[in-house]
TrEMBL record:
Record keywords, A-Z: FAD, Flavoprotein
Lineage start: Eukaryota, Metazoa, Chordata, Craniata, Vertebrata
PANTHER family reported for this sequence: CRYPTOCHROME (PTHR11455), CRYPTOCHROME DASH (PTHR11455:SF22)
Segments for region (Disordered): 89-130
Listed cofactors: FAD
Organism per entry: Cardinalis cardinalis (Northern cardinal)
Name of this protein: CRYD protein
Composition bias type Basic and acidic residues, residue spans: 114-130
Residues where FAD binds: 3-5
Pfam family, any one: FAD_binding_7
GO MF, one example: deoxyribodipyrimidine photo-lyase activity
SUPFAM superfamilies per UniProt: Cryptochrome/photolyase FAD-binding domain
UniProt remark on cofactor binding: Binds 1 FAD per subunit.
Length: 130
């Protein structure tokens, strides 16, 4: 199933283009990091981009960074069976060949702790000392 929410999608496209509503300066959407965070094994990409099905694991997010031997083994020829990248953002380099859940955030921030034993009422109740 493909998710479609007009308002959310338009907002996300604006944010991705760098013109969304974000008070932080020079904010960019890093699609390589997002791919590693939310599709670490590349299953979603593999579903929708069959040309890359031969690439194993998280490397599917950066096929242009693979060796020619790895690309050949996966049956991918950049510029023929899959396009060369139009641009490569400098911010992507720190995520190339990174495994999901790998290095910590560059500024030391971590993702919020997951509280599996707490229901949604915990997050939306007024009493926070539970």
């Amino acid at each position: 199933q493909v998710d479609y929410d007009v308002c959310s999608n338009y907002g996300n496209w604006l944010y991705s283009a760098g013109i969304g509503n974000d008070p932080r300066e020079n904010r960019k959407f890093n699609m390589i990091k997002q791919g590693l965070d939310y599709d670490g094994n590349g299953d979603y990409v593999r579903l929708w981009v069959p040309e890359l099905q031969g690439i194993k694991g998280a490397d599917i997010h950066t096929p242009w960074a693979l060796s020619s031997a790895a690309l050949s083994q996966a049956g991918v020829t950049l510029g023929e069976t899959y396009p060369q990248p139009v641009v490569t953002a400098p911010e992507w380099s720190r995520h190339i060949h990174q495994r999901p859940g790998g290095s910590p955030h560059p500024r030391g921030r971590r993702a919020p702790a997951q509280h599996k034993d707490r229901g949604i009422d915990f997050y939306f109740s007024r009493k926070k000392d539970a």
